[in-house]
Amino acid sequence: MPDRLSSLDASFLYLEDATTPMHVGSVMVFDPPDDGFDYDRLVQLISQRIAFVPRYRQRIRQIPGRLANPVWVDDEDFDVTYHVRRSALPRPGTDEQLQEFVARIQPRPLDRQRPLWEVYLVEGLEDGRFAIVTKSHQALVDGVHAVDIAHVIVDDDPAAEGLVTDTWRPSPEPSDIELLTSALVDAVRRPSEIVENVRGGIADVKAVGGRALSAAGHVASTIARTAARPAPTSPLNASVGEARRYVMIGTDLDDYKKVRSALARGHFADDVTINDVVLATIAGAFRSWLLTRGEAVHSGTTVRAMVPVSVYDDENHTRLGSRLKACFVDLPAGEPGASMRLHQVAFAMRQQMEGGQAVGAETLAELAGFAPPTLHSLGARLGSAVSRRLFNVVITNVPGPQQALYAGDAKMVATYPVMPLAKGQGLSIGLTSYDGGVYYGLNADRDAMPDIDVLGQGIVDALGELLESKSSQR
Question: What domains can you pick out in the chain, each with its CATH number?
Answer without folding.
Answer: 7-160 (3.30.559.10), 217-472 (3.30.559.30)
